[in-house]
Amino acid sequence: MHTLFTLIIAAALVLPPLSSHARMQQQLVFETSNGRVVFTHSDHQDAEKDCGACHGAKEPGKIPGFGKERAHQLCIGCHQKKDGPQKCHECHEK
Ligand code: HEC
Ligand code: HEC
Ligand code: HEC
User: Does the Cβ of 54 fall within 6 Å of ligand 2?
Assistant: First the structure.
């Protein structure tokens, strides 16, 4: 009885919470010629509850034609309004 109890506590200490693991996987990395961009989808999703703000009316998923033009419009456009990073090096790691 006592041993079983200790085992359960040990397991709880060793295993990371499931939710934080799922969030870690929600980083999208864009490799570009100007350095890679890491986009933390989970944080953005928490802050902006409306999927449609970025995905439009369609089912959220890959954004058709996503690339430099679309990305800069979408990302920098909102960052200008909501005080997010706007300088090249704040998004592009070199
Ligand atoms: C702040 C902008 C933003 C918000 C808000 C947002 N997304 Fe996304 N999402 C993106 C971007 C950018 C991509 C990458 C698109 C691409 O690579 O074509 C993406 C990709 C995805 C993908 C594809 C992931 C993959 O592995 O390629 C899914 C699924 C997704 N989003 C679901 C959602 C859902 C569901 C919501 C709302 C709960 C949401 N998104 C809210 C920006 C956003
Ligand atoms: C709907 C609004 C919105 C859109 C669209 C958006 N962001 Fe953001 N983003 C924010 C806000 C607001 C912050 C500031 C959050 C803070 O300081 O806590 C932020 C912060 C960031 C940060 C710094 C914090 C971090 O997570 O590392 C990066 C990098 C970033 N955004 C990248 C992007 C990229 C890349 C895109 C486009 C694919 C994008 N964002 C689209 C609202 C947006
Ligand atoms: C808010 C984040 C953000 C900022 C600020 C930003 N970018 Fe980007 N940039 C991106 C994203 C996201 C992509 C598109 C990634 C994709 O779809 O492949 C991109 C794509 C690019 C590309 C295309 C690279 C390729 O391989 O096709 C170039 C070049 C570029 N950016 C240069 C710049 C320059 C120069 C600045 C500053 C004037 C800047 N970016 C500012 C997020 C940002």
Answer: yes
